[in-house]
Design brief:
The chain is 13% helix and 29% strand. The protein is an alpha+beta fold and 203 residues long. It has one domain: Methylpurine-DNA glycosylase (MPG) (3-methyladenine DNA Glycosylase, Chain A, Roll), CATH 3.10.300. The chain starts with a strand and ends in a 16-residue tail after the last strand.
Length: 203
Amino acid sequence: MNKLEVLKRNFYARNSVKVAKELLGRLLVRELPEGRLIGKIVEVEAYRGSDDPASHAYRGKTPRNEVMFSKPGLAYIYFTYGMHYCLNVKAEKEGIPGAVLIRALEPLEGIKIMKKNRQTEKIKELTNGPAKLTKAMKITKELNGWDLTKGKKLFICKPVSQEKFEMVTTSRIGISAGAERPWRFYIKGNPFVSCKGLVRKTV
């Protein structure tokens, strides 16, 4: 693959909903000793602050969510259900909470390594969910707060050529408070999108 152009901090320093939409089609890159892993972002969810009851930052800053208040372009990684990691990208300007959850990837490079990490040969099961993609790419809490603009270890890039796609907007998954917000976005027709039939579409 040609030289990748890493997204700069000003890309992330915007409204989290806008950042979420524009992350679709971008490339998530993970560098490991055993090789480089690349996946195309095909599904995301936006989260805000005090105006979003589904957000970790809804009730203010805590040690757990402090990355959501930090400078834009950092990785916000948390442990959930006592067994899974979820990768988020810090959006909004410093001091304003906001993040984008990366929900699904289309694996492009390093697929053999991803299969080993996920212990499955089924390519469509590798990265079609937030917990699956972090396991496939060996993304853990150790990378919480990692600067994605460095272009090392874990970062997001522009694709070499921008494909055309249709974006679907729906409600977010697995929440009760704030469930009516149309802040989940995915690439229509992509086979790696999770839970396509479980949520209502919005106009």
